[in-house]
Amino acid sequence: MTTGQELMMRGTVMNNGVKIALEILIWRLNLMTAMREQGEHSGSVNKGKEQVVAAGLKDEDDGYESEGLWDVPVSDDEGDPLFRRYPLYKGLKNIKEYKWEVGTMYVDRNAFKECVTSYAVHSGRGIWFSKCDSHRCKAVCKEGCKWFAYCHKMKREDSWQLTSCYKKHTCSMATKIGIMSSQWLSKAFMKKICENPKIKLRSLIKKAHSKWNVDLTMTKAARVKQQALDEINGTYGEQYRRIHDYAAELLRPMIGLDGCFIKTPYGGQLLTAIGWDPNDQILPIAYAVVEAETKDSWIWFLLNLCDDLGVDKIRWCTFMSDQQKVTLNLNLYN
């Protein structure tokens, strides 16, 4: 990448001498950065890689005789016939009307299982998983019904593909769905529990019956509510655990620059650089006695400050002049 700098000023104009000195400092730091990076980057050639996804239905695994997959390149262009032939599964609101299509792609096994569970709950079918391992997953309906859906893991990828299915049901609807787990229900009720963390268990049971016509026990409703609350509160807990990371990003080093007269028979002026810690404590960084507060004196002072602190430390500092509500961010990035 190209080395550059971002110079932002807000409010009133800074002391002219300090501003010019900082601009010269930026130029010097850019020059030092460019010299350091010279030779490290020799240019790169981006090589395009052909995207490969499973799109066939022939198994090449020695351990299985079921429907399988072979890999063919697929264009990124949505007009490509192969791209249109094998769609990627996306969650639907009305999953009851979901159309099972051989060749449909799933991100992983959990995506397929969640699709089957949602379909079973919304359609009121007694579906269960007869096979489920690291390579294959088969969902079947209750005894006497011919409906099934078989999904297989693609070779050299994490995605899964529906390789065969029978779409029609020959069974009656059920009110007890065995694969309707508390984890799935906690996701379904997440918004409602987040809006009302003190919601009663009977309200969840009534909601499940009115929405999906399924029976939910008090014990399962309690697990659903607790899992949802753990997920909600866990999110806040994770944010609080990262508060120091946020502080490191937001509370970047601040350096205040100022000068004052020295009231002695010899005269002169005092140039200072101070810093603040997270507790708002003022810490002196450097000071120098000069004849007068001029552009040359500020350049000399800041260049020495840069040499002492180092390029890597000073490049992200924010400078404030004369305790004014105006800052100059010295951001050098690659």
SSE arrangement:
Blueprint: E1 4-9, H1 16-37, E2 52-54, E3 71-73, H2 81-85, E4 105-106, H3 109-123, E5 128-132, E6 136-140, E7 148-153, E8 160-166, H4 182-188, H5 190-195, H6 201-212, H7 218-241, H8 243-250, E9 254-261, E10 269-276, E11 282-290, H9 295-309, H10 311-314, E12 318-321, E13 327-333
Helix pairs in contact: 1-9, 4-7, 6-7
Descriptive account of the structure:
The chain has 334 residues and is α+β, with helices and mostly antiparallel strands. The protein folds into two domains: 4-28 and 250-333, no CATH class; 55-180, no CATH class. It is built from ten helices and 13 strands. It has helices at residues 16-37, 81-85, 109-123, 182-188, 190-195, 201-212, 218-241, 243-250, 295-309, 311-314, and strands at 4-9, 52-54, 71-73, 105-106, 128-132, 136-140, 148-153, 160-166, 254-261, 269-276, 282-290, 318-321, 327-333. A six-stranded mixed sheet has the order 1-13-12-9-10-11, with helices on one face. Strands 4-8-7-6-5 form a five-stranded antiparallel sheet. The chain has a two-stranded antiparallel ribbon with strand order 2-3. A hairpin with a 5-residue loop joins strand 10 and strand 11 (282-290). Helix 1 runs parallel beside helix 9, helix 4 packs across helix 7 (218-241) and helix 6 crosses helix 7.
